[in-house]
Amino acid sequence: MSLGIRDILNKPRLLPGTSACPGCPENIALKSISMALGENAVFIVVAGCSSIIQGMGPKSTYNYPVLNIAFAAGPAAAAGMAKAFKMRNKDIKPVVWAGDGGTADIGFASLSGAAERNDNILYICVDNEAYMNTGGHRSGSTPFGARTASTPGGKKENKKDLPLIMMAHHIPYVATASVGYLHDLMEKVKKARSIEGFTYIQVLTPDPYGWMFDPSKTAEVGKLAVQTCYWPLIEYENGKLTISQESMHCLDKRTRKPIEEFLKIQGRYKGVSQEVVKGLEEYIEKMWERIKSIYEGKVIL
Amino acid sequence: MISKVISGNEAVALGVKLSRVKVIAIYPITPQTYIIEELAAMRDKGELDAEVIRVESEHSAMAAVYGAASAGVRVYTATASQGLLYMHEMIWWVAGSRIPIVMTVGTRAVGAPWNIWNEHTDFMSERDSGWLMAFASTPQEALDLTIQAFKISEDERVFLPMMVGMDGFILSHTKTRVYIPSQEEVDSFLPSRKQPYVLDPEDPVDIGNMFQPIDYMKLRHSMHLAILNSKEVIREIGKEYEKKVVPVGSYSSLNESYKLDDAEYAIVSMGAWSLDAMQVVDELRNMGVKIGLYRIRYIRPWDEEDIKRKLGDKDGILVFDRSVSFGRGGHLYLELKATLPDVNIKGIVTGLGGVAIGKDVISSLTRKFIEGKTSDEWFYPSEVEKVELRNPRYIK
Ligand code: SF4
Description:
The structure holds two protein chains of two kinds.
Chain A: H1 5-8, H2 25-37, E1 43-46, H3 49-53, E2 66-69, H4 74-87, E3 95-99, H5 100-106, H6 108-116, E4 122-127, H7 162-167, E5 173-178, H8 182-194, E6 199-204, H9 218-227, E7 234-237, E8 240-243, H10 259-263, H11 274-295
Parallel strand pairs in A: 1-2, 1-3, 3-4, 4-6, 5-6
Antiparallel strand pairs in A: 5-7, 7-8
Chain B: E1 2-7, H1 8-18, E2 23-26, H2 33-44, E3 51-54, H3 58-70, E4 75-79, H4 81-96, E5 102-107, H5 121-124, E6 132-135, H6 139-153, E7 162-167, E8 175-180, H7 183-189, E9 206-207, H8 213-244, E10 256-258, E11 265-269, H9 273-286, E12 291-295, E13 298-300, H10 304-311, E14 316-321, H11 331-339, E15 345-350, H12 359-370, E16 379-380
Parallel strand pairs in B: 2-3, 2-4, 4-5, 5-7, 6-7, 11-12, 11-14, 14-15, 15-16
Antiparallel strand pairs in B: 1-8, 6-13, 10-12
The complex binds iron/sulfur cluster.
């Protein structure tokens, strides 16, 4: 599906004056996603930075209908909403907007339930790899070795593989994206919007505050994550996995950029041991082996 | 209108269907499960024009109906016990958003330890959440209150969610004769849905975002006023229901009084055992005791004026509670004491976890009270010495 410039230049969906930090990746993602979605969008915002970014009620910087909701409730609320719009004959596919904590941890049962029922919703997980709105605590999606407020010595466990877990729910569409590649993100959103049923997109949103890098470098860090193959850009549609152009080079280990380039730009990995670097390399290697075997049809999900 | 011998659960399911609900979230928990099974079956047979969502938890059940209601349709769900507690967070969320929703609670004890029988502690634990809370004493009333609840909840002077309680098993599973209104009767009573906030791309609203302290507090105050306003609304709607829908039962007042006018003593109670209490009143009246019954139908709103008017001059009031605030006493007792600080009021907590309380127990406790022989003990039966904890040990 191609995305023409005319498709995205509609009225602004994010009004000026949000309360986001400078360089906020969620702001960037939200702006692009809502432009790609067009007119008939309704958002369900699960507790997180985006509950705050919209500004103080009764005013709002989000230029579309929003239902803010408790942490664990997003997918279920969206499921109810999708049914209500159906009963009212409205062509609206509700969009759940949730962070990685809301997705990997507290909201996981609700996410899995809605996916299993194949409710007609678009679930977007903005993955900044920690509970950034609550002071930068580790979540199930925080990677190995990363320092957070609750893992000052670095996290001991690997990142939860949410995209693969979602694929195993046999939903019609799963994709990953990065704020480093907005065009790719918007195309995936447009596609997910057009597919009936439960669609899931996980966007890597590098956070200047939690990851500790200069706020002008958000997009750059998002790109490095993809170039070093730490973050894969993939799509899974009707049981078939495809690798997006920007990630094709990851299939061959030799063409991957060294992980150090992704790590050295961030404060959360400052001065980590070779062991952590090795651990992350292993993680990347194993992840790509898994992706490859699905891609090549050796493993059927 | 037809009449049928049905259970409380069946009566509620029929009430929901007649109210033309559009989205129903279902999750099983005893003793309400039959309601949602019945609704799912009606939908399957094409008798019910609604979407049924089989959610994965009660938290999600409330979230799902909340999402659907904010998108502009009439919704319903039911729960009990642990399920109600699991929903607790979303119950507050719905009330704070001023979104009309109706739910049934088939009351049941809360663990630990496990216990599936009846008590009212689950229901009472939502007393401060901003929901309107009615409690039925018969399957008929459960049906009537369910239909009325949609209209009350969707009244612009209220715009708050409403839950209707009924005693688990005692009402949910017991079959009695119930008058079922016709669809035309209910349609003439219940107009199409009204609500203050609707999610529509043509008119974007932002529900539930961050509020400044002063705006947050204004909203909380508005909920308080809405609960107060709802008293008049409930009376109005109750009268209209009597006129348009069903000639049995009286809904022109929030609570029910029985032989109270000339009474010196009064029993106060809520739920199914109020009917036993009514018989006790008759029995004691035959013995020459001037006694009456005040049956609480609405815990929220609390009809303070009516309680003062009807009970303020009594020599003694005995309150039967099926729930407890530990170390303080029954909830109804505490509410009555706050309403009538100068009246001789005594409270009994009983029937917890399904302890069978019949007419005879109510009668003997009431007689003891009138004779001035009640001890300071709150609990009946009072057998606490039989709960033996194990010998304590220090843990290394
Ligand atoms: S903490 Fe991160 S995600 Fe949250 S507002 Fe700031 S930059 Fe955005």
